[in-house]
């Protein structure tokens, strides 16, 4: 016997998604790579390498060479404002010639920002490599549409339509459950609520409240079953609690609640068609939801039934290939969403596709595809792609564990774990560090992880024993000069902090009891070991010594650091430490 649209809170397991069939429009400017023989660069300058200038800006660079890998490959770019950036290390990757290992080796490509000149240092055995054996690749990433044109429609929130949240929380308590989430959204299921079509715009919130109370208390689903509801006037109501940007596990289609979004039209559409306004609002909701989850509205998806009861249309474990946008009747024994609404689904899919625009052109989508899409380490989109500060975009993957960020000035980059937590603590892209400009990468010593950022020449470094800490500006530049984590200081063990006198800034490090202190008048200098201990005993920067004006350096019989108004010497033979004014 065919039943009307009645949903149950049942599990569904997904089994992959058909490849998108929409064709992306070309970006406004294609990417390009210029190969410049290193021999064509300006002659070698000690400490600065060989310099290449170009009238056409580039934003990334890499190096290729013949023979064995150099011991050192570094580049430094001159930005459009004339300033030179930091030296960037380019680790080697396995070179390929037409898909086979060959003699042409290569470095990783580094993001440098828009630049017109580059310096290259490539050394083997302490000497520059033969310039005739190497080439520099200057990469212009081009420009692409940032993301889909589908915008989030106006939504009447649960608070605005008057949801009594105690119905939900009390039911959760009784059943010892809470809000549940899927892995991603792979499909959309269209419903109708059935019942009358004779209601006013003011009645709609009351209808939604009634459905909520019935589903939550009487059916013991603990909440309204649908993720979104749309009335005939085009009003959009937030449904099931948990966040519209997330894959909230609904209760709207037996066996197919997980990894789907259920959108229900208020009314009954067996003999009456949905209004054009209602269908347009449904299309807007689906365009926003599917674009942000990277789903082709004209494509198909294979789902696996997660319910095995006698009332299920598909037994537990049955694979079913469905349109990405389908009706409740496609997965359940029901006439929902009504014959006349079901007849509208082909046109609805086309309208959703129109609203989504070139949804495959975005940089984060392309990054996701490059990592393997759903089958890769990111998995499906968890929190859909959305706007970020300053014209950027963001999306969350891997059940919320990993994020990707893009801005007009930075490529799409991945950030996760404790580094992401620290970055968010520092106000994420709106903070001093700005957007990430690298993925999370492994440090050369193999012990830590890091991301570099676009703001303040900043980075966040993490190890299991230090946690995650930011380091930036001239303090970071000094640390880099000393050899990064392989140098005498090791890893940062604090963020950059302000000194008690309000003049300087500093980071502490995990090795040699080391720190780097900076002031506008002294610059950045490291201080460590017994010399730092003596400085601390005297009162740090508030002592008569003031701030460090040199790094620690060797003197006959020991080590010394200079300060603004004196110096400290450590005796290697006795271990004694002496401080003196000038």
UniProtKB/TrEMBL annotation:
Keywords: Signal. Residues 153-308 form the Peptidoglycan recognition protein family domain. Residues 174-338 form the N-acetylmuramoyl-L-alanine amidase domain. Residues 1-24 form the signal peptide. InterPro entries: Amidase/PGRP_sf (IPR036505), Amidase_domain (IPR002502), LGFP (IPR013207), PGRP (IPR015510), PGRP_domain_met/bac (IPR006619). SMART domains: Ami_2, PGRP. It holds the Pfam family Amidase_2. One of its GO terms (molecular function) is zinc ion binding. GO terms for biological process: peptidoglycan catabolic process. Belongs to the N-acetylmuramoyl-L-alanine amidase 2 family. This is Uncharacterized protein with LGFP repeats. It comes from Saccharopolyspora spinosa. The lineage of its organism: Bacteria, Bacillati, Actinomycetota, Actinomycetes, Pseudonocardiales.
């Amino acid at each position: 016997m065919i039943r009307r649209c009645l949903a149950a809170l049942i599990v569904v397991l997904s089994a992959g998604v058909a490849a998108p069939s929409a064709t992306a429009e070309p970006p406004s400017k294609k990417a390009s790579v210029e190969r410049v023989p290193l021999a064509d660069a300006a002659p070698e300058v000690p400490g600065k390498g060989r310099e290449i200038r170009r009238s056409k800006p580039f934003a990334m660079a890499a190096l290729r060479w013949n023979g064995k890998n150099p011991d050192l490959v570094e580049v430094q770019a001159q930005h459009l404002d004339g300033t030179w950036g930091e030296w960037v290390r380019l680790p080697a990757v396995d070179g390929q010639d037409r898909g086979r290992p060959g003699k042409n080796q290569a470095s990783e490509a580094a993001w440098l920002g828009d630049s017109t000149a580059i310096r290259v240092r490539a050394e083997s055995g302490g000497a520059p490599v033969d310039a005739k054996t190497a080439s520099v690749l200057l990469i212009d990433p081009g420009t692409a549409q940032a993301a889909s044109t589908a915008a989030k429609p106006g939504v009447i929130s649960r608070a605005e339509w008057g949801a009594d949240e105690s119905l939900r929380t009390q039911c959760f308590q009784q059943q010892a459950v809470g809000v549940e989430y899927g892995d991603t959204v792979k499909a959309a299921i269209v419903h109708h609520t059935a019942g009358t079509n004779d209601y006013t715009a003011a009645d709609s919130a009351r209808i939604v409240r009634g459905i909520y109370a019935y589903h939550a208390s009487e059916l013991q689903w603990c909440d309204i079953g649908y993720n979104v509801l749309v009335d005939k006037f085009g009003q959009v109501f937030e449904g099931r609690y948990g966040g519209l940007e997330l894959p909230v596990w609904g209760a709207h289609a037996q066996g197919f609640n997980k990894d789907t979004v259920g959108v229900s039209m208020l009314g009954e559409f067996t003999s009456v068609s949905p209004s054009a306004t209602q269908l347009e609002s449904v299309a807007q909701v689906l365009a926003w939801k599917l674009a942000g989850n990277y789903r082709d509205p004209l494509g198909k998806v294979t789902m696996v039934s997660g319910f095995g009861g006698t009332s299920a249309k598909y037994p537990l474990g049955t694979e079913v290939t469905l349109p990405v946008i389908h009706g409740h009747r496609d997965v359940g024994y029901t006439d929902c969403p009504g014959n006349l609404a079901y007849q509208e689904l082909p046109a609805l899919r086309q309208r959703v596709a129109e609203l989504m625009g070139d949804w495959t052109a975005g940089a984060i989508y392309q990054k996701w595809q490059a990592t393997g899409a759903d089958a890769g380490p990111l998995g499906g989109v968890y929190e859909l792609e959305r706007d970020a500060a300053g014209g950027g975009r963001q999306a969350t993957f891997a059940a919320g564990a990993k994020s990707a960020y893009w801005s007009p000035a930075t490529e799409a980059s991945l950030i996760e774990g404790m580094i992401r937590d620290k970055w968010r603590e520092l106000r994420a892209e709106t903070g001093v560090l700005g957007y990430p400009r690298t993925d999370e990468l492994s440090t050369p010593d193999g012990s830590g992880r890091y991301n570099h950022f676009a703001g303040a020449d900043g980075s966040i470094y993490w190890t299991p024993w230090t946690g995650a800490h930011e380091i930036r500006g001239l303090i970071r530049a000094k640390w880099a000069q000393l050899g990064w984590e392989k140098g005498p200081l090791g890893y940062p063990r604090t963020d950059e902090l302000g000194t008690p006198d309000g003049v300087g800034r500093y980071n502490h490090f995990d090795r040699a009891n080391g720190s780097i202190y900076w002031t506008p008048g002294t610059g950045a200098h490291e201080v460590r070991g017994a010399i730092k201990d003596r400085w601390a005993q005297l009162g740090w920067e508030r002592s008569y010594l003031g701030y460090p004006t040199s790094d620690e350096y060797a003197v006959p019989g020991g080590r010394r650091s200079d300060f603004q108004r004196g110096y400290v010497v450590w005796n290697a033979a006795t271990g004694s430490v002496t401080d003196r004014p000038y």
